[in-house]
Write a structure and sequence with these properties.
3-stranded antiparallel sheet; globular; alpha+beta; about 20% helix
Length: about 180
């Protein structure tokens, strides 16, 4: 199963959004969720997790401004996923984001690069503990997602074969289809 993506209002909250997404994708049933930090074991922060009817799912989430995006893939036949949403223009040193072989572009290009790399790092399970500048996008798997105006978003699924493309799937929803009304 390819990862499924859903957009929510950030006010919904991470746990509620992940649980609602799991139910909409897999049907009714008991859904539990939480976080777990692989470095310290804390459940107050770290990578999110979700179980539907006791079965674990690969999940990721990101929020920026009023937007929250979730991604889910089945563990059986699925791949770990990472998703990120960012404002379309960020003010950050390019050297923090770009690998030595990558060229700086506009602030919008840098925001897209950030979203792609953060999604990759979430899929790997390391998050920002791994410096973005060590990631070379040409060697990675990611997909740009439709995002609300003024934002950029990306999805990474380890093992996916659509590197750097926007290859669509009927399970992938555009931002217009799933964003809450303003």
């Amino acid at each position: 199963m390819r990862p499924d993506v859903a957009w929510h209002a950030a006010s919904v909250g991470a746990a509620a959004a992940l649980e609602a997404h799991a139910r909409s994708l897999l049907g009714p049933g008991t859904v539990t969720s939480g976080r777990l930090c692989s470095a310290c074991g804390s459940d107050a922060h770290g990578r999110p997790w979700v179980r539907h009817l006791g079965e674990p799912l690969h999940v990721s989430l990101s929020r920026s401004g009023p937007h929250l995006v979730t991604a889910i893939a089945l563990v059986d036949g699925g791949v770990p996923v990472g998703v990120d949403v960012e404002v379309a223009a960020i003010d950050v040193l390019p050297s923090l984001v770009l690998a030595p072989s990558e060229a700086p572009g506009s602030a919008g290009d840098l925001a897209r690069t950030w979203a792609r790399k953060e999604a990759i790092l979430k899929a790997r399970g390391t998050g920002l503990a791994t410096p973005m500048s060590t990631i070379v996008l040409a060697e990675e798997t990611w997909q740009d997602l439709p995002a609300p105006e003024g934002y950029v978003a990306a999805l990474a699924g380890l093992g996916d074969t659509s590197t750097g493309t926007s290859a669509g799937s009927s399970t992938w929803m555009s931002a217009d289809e799933v964003l809450p009304s303003a």
